[in-house]
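Per reviewer request, we include the raw input and output of the structure prediction for the construct analysed in the revised manuscript.
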Amino acid sequence: MLKKIMLVVSCMLLATAALSSDIIPNSNFEKIDSNGWAEGWPRTAFMSYEQEGTNHFLRMNALSPNKMHMLYREVKVPAGAEALELTWRHRISNLKKGEKSWFDARIMLEFMDGNRKGLPAKPKAPSFGKNVAEWTDCKTQFLVPKDAKILKLMPALFNVESGTWDIDDMQIKPISANELKAAEAKHKEQYNKAKAAESEKIRNKAAQTLANGGSLIANGSFEELREDGMGAKHWGSNNENTFVASEAGNHFMRITAKPNKLVNIYREYPIPTGAKALELSWRQRVTGLKTGEKPWFDARFIFELKDASRNKIAGAPGPAYTQKDTSGWVTKSTRFLVPDNATYFVFMPCLFEAKAGTFDIDDLVLKPIDPAPIIAEKKKWERIEAMRNIPVEQPNKAKWPAELKVVGNKVIDANGKEVWLQGVNVVGLESLPFGSQMMKSTQVAVDEWGSNCIRLTVKEQFWFGESIHQKDGGAAYRKLIDDIITFTANRGAYVVLDLHHFRAPRERDIRFWSAAAKVYANHPAVLFDIFNEPHDISWEVWRNGGFVGEKGKIDESAFLSEEEKCKNQGFESCGMQKLVEVVRSTGARNIIIAGGCHWANDLSGVVNGYALEDKTGNGIMYSWHTYNWHGGWERILPVLEKYPVYLGEFGGDTKKMGFLPLDIQEDPYTFCPDMLGFVQKHKIHWGAFSLAPNSTPRLVLDWEYTPTPFWGEFVIEALKGKRFEMKRMR
């Protein structure tokens, strides 16, 4: 800031004068250089070198009203000095302060370390807001911070309207620090006592508010209106973007977007004495939301905790954000522990630089709660966090599995042994460039559950470092993938690298496989799942490419003109065969896995003229996905006779999918064991979905990897060798 001010006012700064044994050389301004100026002192337009009798001094004149006029000098801090005393003589005339109370005559002081880095401890600037008619002796004393090597002296007419400041005999000397340290300690003690008393008073008042209304928030329902009709009591006045609205007799706060601007309501509440944890609950409704340029430019509650001095402190919960419209009113809450030094809780409902939208809020309640459940949850996450620390391993190629190839409908390793790939999906890297517990999930899948193959879901955007969360061009993301592959290969297991895209292959997928296939070309543990779930395209487009319409979500290439295609806002698909050729062009012979049509649930085209061709590689497997709302298992049998099939995703969940009719989603307790029986009967390669508690279907209930009884437990049993009976064909 100071540098900016100095540039604005175009003040000339003199390079540091050669330091001598004097702390301030030529402190009395009596030595004159060849230019007739005080030796070692800066010369600027607003300064003059004056003489009265035999005495010389410097004069500062405020030539430009309301601008900075500053003298700059650096001096060496004496070795071992713990405190310094600055003395000088001055006189001030015609002084008129500027717009702010601190726009006056003052000497700013700052310390720097040996690397010329500023130190946070700054002595209080001696300041003067009135004229001083006669020469007057002045002094100030201050402690020297640790590591201080240089002191910056900056006498300034600081944005004053007018004034003349004469300065003479400016000297610095080391002094004892004892009195200053004692005074500082006493001041700190008094300050802390005063703040503690103030905090206690505030807390007691908050406790009374809670006792009166059951909440620390007065009028959180917005039903008490102001007498002037301009809003709700205790919530300030309405304005064009934040105002009280009503529907069917119910009042609530409404926040409307100002495009790409922050629109918020700031609320600060004292925390009562004895409160160890707080819960904030509310109802909200979001409509017409269009998020801004950044992912977090959305509808959200921002939370802060402050001490008695209203300084922000750690411990506040993370923001509660919403990035899409809600289905009517929904209830939200956040719970958190209260740090000992927390006096105020702040929340700010806002549309955070959203492009458009309405954010309605009602029924806010803030109250103390039992901290025990939060403490228990915190300890749980500490355990989980400790579990995440899986050491990165160096490649141990002696333990890597043998390279695989397709022979007929079998997968054979380099030793001629048939291999049956069985395992789980390790997900997360398709959603965020860092995923969730990726290494731990890999360790659980292979070491604890016994998978000989994991399916690793990835995204090309993160591979190339194009996410807003990435600043390294994707280096960390690619390293994490490599660490997972190395960890798995070191245990003799395989990794299916799955490009987790939908609809139909396009240019971005070519770009990814041109890079990724080159990196893992002929890695014995890596298979390439080139495209996750094609859908709403013909088998012709699936294999050979063509136009894919977007509006209707159907293959329209056969009957649309080029002009109509443009209007339809579709894209040109390269087709799956092209992806095979891209992979093989890198020299990679790794087995390729290709997902079928209809979200990979249909492989009929593979045995009806649309099988992919692999001239130079180790062969093609076809990926089938089926869940507890799918039937038609018999349709896969003709494919199994000719080709190896990888059941890349399957499973069931007690959490039903909202986009499907509820009655077609079979109970996972019957579907999952039967599906495993079908898989085992036909020796289908498989990867159960998925090893994450926030997915559906989910194999685990939490990040401590507690298996779900309706799916995870069955998978573990299957991986350990249990045979399941298929009781009913679907």
